[in-house]
Amino acid sequence: MKYQQLDRSQLKIKPLSERVNKVQIARDHVALDVVPRPFSRADKEILHRLLERIDKARKAEKSIMLTFGAHAIKNGLAPVLINLMERGWVTHLATNGAGIIHDWEFAYQGESSENVQKYLQEGQFGIWHETGFFINLAIIVGAYQGLGYGESVGALIENEGLNIPSQAFLLDFIGTSVNEAPSKAAAAADLLHTIRVDALDEGFMSVPHPYKRYSAQAAAYRLGVGFTGHPMIGHDIIYNHPTNLGAAIGRCAQTDYLRFAHQVSNLEDGVYLSIGSAVMSPMVFEKSLSMAQNLKLQKNQSIKNHYMLVVDLAQSQWNWSEDGEPPMDNPAYYLRYCKTFSRMGGQMDYLCADNRDVLLHLSQNL
Prior knowledge:
Rossmann fold; two-stranded antiparallel ribbon; 16 helices
């Protein structure tokens, strides 16, 4: 049986400037002095515990990890994230592929968030040139340079461009490194392929980002703070563009996964904050923690005194911190992220709250 693939080169790809967006970052960003909505007494106790644990973790030079879904970026929270990074209150940030994209689109054009229903009916959802081309190209270049997923896009934004090597240089590099460093040679071959297919000129490719002050990825790159992207093939609109190369995605995403896991290995007495990420954060965390525990136990050590706060909008009547995992006939059992984190040892709290209010509270009270 011969399997067929869809030919992305035949897509009618429109310029990003033709897309109508719902969010304008200069208008809709969350300012640092916005007063968050009041919390209940019980929620205040959780937030106070979070502040204390973060303060202790920083003094002990332990990991303070902030993971979030794409809505934290779409909601205009990048200035708050940047403020936390600049003041040294987080050691690592992580998001999914959509969070990477919204952050880049805000930096590039000041707008993001298309009308999915409208453009899907028109056969145009996610099929925009600049988003697909520049993000994919940044990742292909980044894979060749040994960068991570978030780092590659952050470098594009902060540097406002990409360095494109010559075809002759890449050919020589592939020939001399294929035996000793075949993975590097393969990444160089991917870049060479892209340069030829897209007829790219060598040298610095200028890509202005007039709104880069709103980019959390650019700030992380500038400040040297880890910002990792954890994508899934087919989940994001950049896969609709013919410049997309799965191998480059895999190389950069694997780098970020191992960087994420390295931070988890320093999580004893540290803090893990998961905001609005129902799938990426719990899934990546549990595998990373397993590897970290494996290595610690070989040294007669363990990670058991970490603090985890899970934040989302879903109501939960189950007391996860006191009652453990609910039985399978209880609806709370299917609150996937709480179930996952409740199995991860340490101490876990769940907070039903808007991501804006929680992050503003952190920024204003740490």
